Hints:
Radius of gyration: 18 Å
Order of helices and strands: EHEHEH
Largest sheet: 3 strands, mixed
Amino acid sequence: GRELGQEDKLAVIGQGANLAVHEFRNNPSTHFVASPAYFPERYGKHLIDLALRILNGERVPATNLIEPICVTLDNHQEVMG
């Protein structure tokens, strides 16, 4: 990309959103398009809530996922703070 002078022909997608947020904040004309944010710091609360539901006799789905959020230039400030 940059080294070859071809950066204007790139679109970049990432994982984890950390680099995307840095890039969005420091380079508004970036070619970084999006990156999912997983928020592992929220997993514990989700698991406790799930465990309490099970202990209360509630039937819960066999698969319980925390939905990632797609972080983009348009929403990065709202999503990531």
